[in-house]
Design goal:
The protein is mainly alpha-helical. The chain contains twelve helices and eight strands. It has helices at about 1-15, 45-55, 70-85, 105-110, 125-135, 145-160, 195-215, 220-240, 245-250, 265-275, 280-285, 310-315, and strands at about 20, 30-35, 40-45, 95, 160, 165, 255-260, 260-265.
């Protein structure tokens, strides 16, 4: 049964792949990949990443490998399109959409002083994914200063020094639709665990990028990025006196951690897998790894909804108790 399903999916991909390999369009200057065939004028940040992640393993076999170079050309184009529309302060939009405006709408908003979310931390991950697959980084060698500015923008607008974590500006286009930790929360108040987990992986990918393309002049910067990634991972798990202080408990997701054990919602379980570090799991929460599953309490905290909670409270009252008498100030 599973083999037949896999074959069906493969045939579907082979028959429909032309619909996701998009050609340049208006001010989208490079070929690109996006999963929805109706999105002829849209380039999305992590949609392009996951599309490439899925297509590269098929590149040698789909249609006998005849599309391999085309897939790679469009994959590189994803990155080049976003770098093409990077602003001077390093801002890169989450999405490039061709419409009645002369440039990406999110860039126009940013230029007018309206701060919105920027490209999710998958840019360097996509660069590494492509470059390692084709065993060639030369296509992106001249872009390291743009990557510098990309991280500087994240640091300037989305990093909270007092928590040591990155925050979403709001819930728009974050990719985790209706996540109660982010949806409807006050601006810049959600140090979402997905965002910070992905940022750890992005920083590690950036360190590889700098080692490959920037030479000796950037090796120190590469080491600094690795250190920054380790610090962000550290802050996520052991900020204050509670491994989840900086994200889940403080920011209204489903889980919490106590010294006696781990209680977690589905979001935390997924990110636990994302970080992929058994040694760190064992060090931070002894006894949790190797289990078949963790307890998953599904009841929402009162500020998300339920009895005794008004509509205004559900939308505007952020949790601030970080445990140990600490308050989250953002």
């Amino acid at each position: 049964m599973e083999k037949k399903q896999a074959e069906r999916i493969y045939r579907y991909a082979e028959e429909n792949i032309d619909g996701v390999l998009k050609e340049p369009h208006s001010f989208i200057h490079y070929p690109f990949i996006d999963p929805g065939s109706v999105y002829d004028g849209n380039v999305w940040d992590w949609d392009t990443y996951w599309s490439v992640y899925s297509l590269l393993p098929l590149a040698d076999t789909i249609r006998g490998g005849a599309l391999k170079e085309k897939i790679l050309t469009h994959a590189r184009g994803n990155v080049l399109n976003f770098l093409d529309w990077q602003l001077e302060d390093g801002y890169i939009p989450m999405m490039i959409e061709v419409a009645k405006w002369p440039e990406p709408y999110l860039n126009l908003q940013h230029k007018q002083g309206y701060l919105m979310n920027m490209h999710k931390p998958f840019l360097c991950q996509q660069i590494r994914l492509i470059s390692e697959y084709q065993k060639d980084w030369s296509w992106i060698t001249g872009s390291w200063e743009q990557i510098d500015r990309y991280f500087a923008c994240y640091q300037r607008y989305y990093f909270q020094e007092n928590t040591g974590l990155y925050v979403w500006r709001d819930d728009i286009m974050i990719g985790m639709d209706n996540d109660p930790a982010s949806f409807g929360r006050p601006k810049s108040s959600t140090a979402n665990i997905f965002l910070n987990s992905f940022m750890v992986m992005e920083l590690e990918a950036a360190a590889d990028f700098y080692r490959e393309v920037a030479g000796d002049a950037r090796k120190a910067g590469s080491a600094a990025l690795c250190q920054h990634a380790e610090e962000r991972e550290h802050e996520m798990w052991i900020s204050g006196q509670d491994p989840m202080t900086g994200s889940i408990r403080a920011l209204a997701s489903f889980g919490s951690v106590s010294r006696s054990g781990l209680r977690s919602g589905a979001g935390f379980c997924r990110c636990w897998q994302v970080l992929r570090r058994r040694r760190r799991q064992r060090a931070l929460c002894p006894g949790t790894t190797g289990k078949r599953r963790l307890a998953l309490p599904m009841a929402s905290p009162p500020w998300i909804g339920g009895s005794g909670c008004s509509e205004s409270q559900r939308q505007t009252t952020p949790p601030t108790d970080l445990g140990g008498g600490q308050l989250l100030r953002v």
